[in-house]
Amino acid sequence: MIPLTMARTGETVTIRKITGKDEVRQHLAELGFVVESNVTVVSEIGGNLILQVKDSRIALDRTMANRIMI
pTM of this prediction? Predict the structure, then answer.
């Protein structure tokens, strides 16, 4: 498993694990980041990611994206 920040722009990946405190995992789940869901990296600017999750585009900073393992 590698962190989501290692995925390339345009790549669609499957979430395998989400690390961090319960509050962080709950927040990410509310945004749509759940295990076994697919995420597409739309763009990457300075380590921060814009992601396509289901029908939404969401921006995550590097520290949050590093908690999502693919």
Answer: 0.90
Contact 9, 36 (CB under 8 A): no
What tokens were used for 29? 């789940």
The predicted structure's pLDDT at residue 46: 86
Question: Chain centroid to CA 11: how far?
Answer: 12
Read off the pLDDT of residues 7-47 as tens digits, 9 standing for 90 and up: 999 999 999 999 999 999 999 999 999 999 999 999 999 88
Q: Does domain 4-69 have CATH number 3.40.640.10?
A: no
Scanning the structure block, which residue is given the tokens 């345009």? 10
DSSP readout, 25-70? HHHHHHHT--TT-EEEEEEEETTEEEEEETTEEEEE-HHHHTTEE-
Q: What is the dihedral of CA 59, 61, 64, 68, to 10 degrees?
A: 60
